[in-house]
Amino acid sequence: MTDIRCIGICTGGGDAPGLNAVIRAAVKCAFLKYNWKIIGIPDGFDGLIWPEKSYELTLKQVSGILPRGGTILGTTNRGNPFQYRTVENGEEVTRDISDTVIANSRKLGIDAVISIGGDGSQAIAHELYQRGMQIVGVPKTIDNDLSATEVTFGFDTALTTATDAVDKIHTTAESHHRVMVVEVMGRDAGWIALESGIAGGAHVILIPEITFTIESVCRFVKKRETYGKRFTIVVVAEGVKLPQELKENRRAGSIGNLIGNSIAVTSDKEVRVSVLGHIQRGGSPTPFDRILATRFGVAAVDLIAQGGFGKMVCLRKERIEAVEIAQAIGQLKRVDPNGQLVQTAKAIGICFGE
Ligand code: F6P
User: Fold this and answer.
1) What is the pLDDT of residues 193-251, one digit of tens each?
2) What's the CA gap between 236 and 194, in Å, rounded?
3) CA 178 to chain centre
4) What are the φ/ψ torsions at residue 175 (nearest 5 degrees)?
5) Which residue of 76, 77, 153, 240 sits with most ligand 1 atoms within 8 Å of its CB, as the best mutation to test the pocket?
6) Could you read off the pLDDT of 17-69 as tens digits, one per residue?
7) How far is the CA of 309 from the centre of ligand 1 (A)?
8) Which of 15, 75, 116, 143 for mutating ligand 1's site (highest number of atoms within 8 Å of CB)?
9) Which atom of ligand 1 is nearest to the CA of 77?
10) For helices 98-107 and 119-130, what crossing angle results, to 10°?
11) What distance in Å separates the CA atoms of residue 313 and residue 121, rounded to the nearest whole number?
12) Cα 255 to Cα 239: distance, rounded to the nearest angstrom
């Protein structure tokens, strides 16, 4: 057991449904199980540049936040104390202010920090740990692309939102005999596209892990017409690798629009595009995400109590475990093009544009 009296908690990177559930669980567990004081650090590690902005988190403050999306602490995906960008004498300069951040956490009486974030935030957490900060990580991202954990909270909610959108697109696509393109998030991994495409009954799924051509997609659209299916739903991951000809003509605008226009020109079909964007990051977390987030929050507090600094909680074979943050960062978990999920999709006739 470590000699802990006060912990800090911060959320960094893009928000994900379930962040508040982690904060609530950590505050409850830290207070009720260990009688620790908890400090909320606003806007990721940026909050430690101005320590006066941090504040005590009590049970009252976390009451009612379990079903709320976003993060009550605020977040930023630009806050990196090792490369802090500021303007001096009219010029933008980058400074390492990690010493200030660590000193300020000590000034606040913080003995250990829970850093909730994705790959980028965990890399910062690891560097701060190496500089002496007692820190543990909680993985988060709707993209589900962290290799150290089987799943991250936020993914299930984003998947539910994307699936609901694909469901809704079905009726209008069918009524108008159109090709409907739905662009979803996921950065360089195709998990949201693949799973919402399968769950929503899409006919074409384009993901970063599988190379596609517009001709192949259009051939498939035509073939469906020979079966009497005059509409096609295409789910596109925002991170797909564009075919060379589209790369050359790359204009401003979303990937979905680019692909949609190209399908329209090549197939002579009417095409409409929906870019789901940040609605996938919003809304109330699903029960799965609330439970996973709660388990992570409790596990992070227990990890601090056990002195497991420099580690991150994760889910493996349905059990919550801990891994070294150093091993958890830098390796993206991507869709296996030969894996069971892709094979299942192919077996029911879904086209990947190959
Ligand atoms: O990593 C989560 C994510 O939502 C990605 O899916 C998306 O590419 C990115 O963040 C969007 O970031 P921002 O909120 O900065 O536009």
Assistant:
1) 999 999 999 999 999 999 999 999 999 999 999 999 999 999 999 999 999 888 877 66
2) 9
3) 31
4) -60, -40
5) 77
6) 999 999 999 999 999 999 999 999 999 999 999 999 999 999 999 999 999 99
7) 28
8) 143
9) 15
10) 80
11) 14
12) 8
pTM of the full structure:
0.95
Q: How far is CA 325 from CA 47, 55, 99, 116, in A?
A: 22, 27, 20, 12
SS3 180: strand
- Asked if residue 71 has its Cβ within 6 Å of ligand 1, the reply is no
3-state secondary structure of 253: coil
- Return the active site residues: 143
How confident is the model at residue 330, as a pLDDT? 83
Per the listing, tokens 């956490």 go with 105
Q: What is the pLDDT of residues 240-289, one digit of tens each?
A: 999 988 887 766 678 999 999 999 999 989 999 999 999 999 999 999 99
